[in-house]
Please model this.
Amino acid sequence: MQSSKITDQNLVKQYVQGNEACLEMLINRHKERIFTTIILIVKDSYIAEDLFQETFIKIIKNLKKGKYNEEGKFLPWAIRIARNMAIDYFRKMKRMPTVTSSDGEDVFRKIKLAVDNREEQMIRNEKENLVRAVINKLPEEQRQVLILRHYGDLSFKEISAMTGVSINTALGRMRYALNNMRKMMEHTSINAA
Model:
């Protein structure tokens, strides 16, 4: 059986009917995209590996319970499960990925890998904690879009598909999130310089 010629839908159908090899083909076909999705959100390979395994456990349970009805769109369905698992991980841990603020407009630039001196590290950690606190105060819908966009590096089209809202709604939630963050940062006098 050549796995590249069999559709995801057929592999799912055959797996549900008892062909375990079909699940292995699905995993091998999509493991890179799913793992990449998770690691972009959690930014830790050990955590990503655990979440990757948990994602496939959940996928298997859903397939066996007959909860898959995505009409041949296995990968988007699996990625949505992976993203939700990563986001749930942060909710459980009550922490956000590490961020470094650079200025009032771009709070989410990538962290420099260069080793700073201890004082700079302490200042950066303090700013990161303040930004995390502000993000945690956002309404759930705004926080979700913000995390998916900036930590998951997803397009608004992907966010729209994952959350079940229109692209305009996702854009609006992002705009409100950034505006609310600016107001909270001004109110708490966070110096983003």
